Each structure stands twice: as C-alpha cells, then as structure tokens.
Amino acid sequence: MRTSALAFIVTLTTFGACAVWLPSAAAQQPDDRSLGRIKHADSVTIDCSACPRALANAGKTARQELTSWDRFRIVNDPKKADLIFMFSSNPYLGDYLTRKGPDERPVRIESTIMTVIDPRTGETLWSDSRRWGSLRVAGATRDLIGELRGEMEAESRKWTLDEVFGCRGAAAYQALAFATPEAALQRPELGVRRMDEESDRLTVSSPQAPEFCRRAQLLIGADHKIDGFEVVASEADALDVAAILAQADQFDFTSGKDPQTQKVHFTAQTTDKKTIIRFEVRGRRAILSRVTYLY
Predict the structure, then answer these.
(1) To the nearest whole percent, how much of the chain has pLDDT over 90?
(2) Roughly how many angstroms between the first and final C-alpha of the chain, as a whole number?
(3) pTM of the model
(4) Helix axes 137-152, 57-69, angle to 10 degrees
(5) CA–CA separation, 128 vs 100, rounded Å?
(6) How far is CA 17 from the centre of its chain?
(7) Which of 211, 193, 188, 213 is nearest to 203 (CA)?
(8) Are 144 and 138 in contact, with CB atoms under 8 Å apart?
C-alpha cells in the first residue's frame, strides 16, 4: 500500500506489535573478553551430537536461526570453525578436546542448553539454558540464540542517512553488478562467499566498502545475475525516521503487514528505485530492518 509521508508518521504512532525478551536468571554471564571473542568470530559449527529424540530439533532450529541472522558462516567441519554452538540437555563438562567418544550420560529432555565453545581450547565462552521440556525445544533454541544476539548487539549504532546512501556507489560491490554467482565466487579479493555450505545464497564482505555495508547479502535475479546487495540490520543498528521524512520528496513510501508474522512494516524507496529502506514497527518505534541496493 502506497502512503504519503504524513500517513507514514500516523501509522508509526498507531500500529505495531510489542516484543518482550526475558533472559533466564540462570544465564552464565560472559566477561567482556569472552563476548569479544564471540563478536570477532566469523564461522560456527553446530554440535547436536548429544541430542536424542525431540532434542534433535535444537540442531535444525539453530541452523535456521543462524542462517536468518547472517552473522556467522555455518561450516560442518569443527576444525574450520571459530566457534562451536553445542546443544544438549546435560551441562557441558569442558571436555571437548579430551573426551573420547560420545557423551554416555543419560538424557532427560527437561532443559535445552546452548554452550558456545572455543574449539581450540574447549573453553566455554557463553552458556545458558531454558527449562521448557521436550515439546518446546525449537522455541527454547530460538530464545537462546536471540539472547546471545541481544548481548552481542547491546550497544546501539546510530547511522546517518548519508552513511546509508554512501553504500550505493561502493566500488567493491559495483564490480559485481550483473555478474553470475559463479563469477562472483571467483573474486575472493572482494570477500564473496556462500552463506553456508548447504546454501546457494552469497554474502560479500569488503573492508573497502563503507562501514554500514561491509557485510551484505548478494541478490540473485531471475536471470541468474546479481541485481544488487542487501544489508540486514542488527538490533544495534538505528536510523532515525525523521532524517528520511526531512527529505520526503526523495522517497516513495509504502506500508504493509507480513501475513505470517503479522508485523507491520514500512519502506522508503528512493524515487530512482535504487535504494529501499525497510523498517519494522514495534509498539511506537520504527526499527531499521534492512536496506536494499539495486544496480
């Protein structure tokens, strides 16, 4: 639905959905050093080897959540991973490097435990659990990953509209315009890689790109060519809607509701159709969701 800038403001203040996150009191609070090591990691492997019966849903859900987050590359070989996301119903014993064979402890699926491990030392970097029983393993897994994400993104970064627009002409990404995915993967100097080993989706990461878009997803069109790239905002990324409304003549505004999540969203698309800024509405707040750049 197309709307004017005024209607955009009115809808922001009258619709939306509130999201509340309540962390577990049993959380192992990481020190700044451990959390810093998680923040600097690039790749993860998911270990659900001690996940019998319903607990196996933890591994499947974790892959879905991490793919959606697009913060880490998912690899299958622990030797190639910077972190291990281990799921279990028994506490981790710190024996990742020394244990021989599978964990032989009996498993009662009362709790879903997520432990982030340094694969080089076996050290626990972060851990928490949800005592939600066997029927809510998937929900517990989503909540645990959401908790870790919230801690990693606790410090908000407020971007300016100029910084967001600065990505449109990024030379590193313009070099990929209308290339095939196969050709893009042959440009390692541009930081192109698969999102994970089981996906055809591509990410690009270049230190030469403006800070806002140093990590992005490449958009593959129907003609099997790269049509643009997209930055998925984190909880820490903020862009003031007022900055866009101050330049309302440069944008076309649309609004809608996701049929699956029922979340209200708004987009501000530049009149040249090259940049699309999307917000989600939570209560009375507009949260930056993603920015799409088309060639």
Answers:
(1) 54
(2) 24
(3) 0.58
(4) 30
(5) 25
(6) 20
(7) 193
(8) no
What residues pair up with 237 in beta bridges, in sequence order? 157
Tally Cβ neighbours within 10 Å of residue 13: 12
CA distance 12 to 213: 26
User: What whole-number distance in Å separates Cα of residue 209 and Cα of residue 206?
Assistant: 5
Confidence of residue 211 (pLDDT cuts 50, 70, 90): very high
**Six-digit token pair at 73?**
């590359």
Distance CA 104, CA 167 (A): 52
Tokens encoding 234? 């984190």
Judge whether 204 and 218 are in contact, CB under 8 Å: yes
Q: Which two tokens stand for residue 57?
A: 């849903």
Q: Find all residues with CB under 8 Å of 165, minimum gap 6, and list them.
A: 275
pLDDT of residue 286: 84
Tokens of 123: 């050290």
What's the full length of the chain, in residues? 295
pLDDT tens-digit readout, 137-158: 999 999 999 999 888 877 678 8
Range of lowest pLDDT (135-139, 183-187, 234-238, 285-289): 234-238
pLDDT of residue 287: 84
> How far, in Å, CA of 123 to CA of 136, rounded?
28
| Structure letter (DSSP) for residue 80 | G
Domains with residue ranges and CATH for the chain: 2-14+156-294 (no CATH), 32-152 (3.40.50)
**pLDDT tens profile 31-47:** 556 788 898 888 999 99
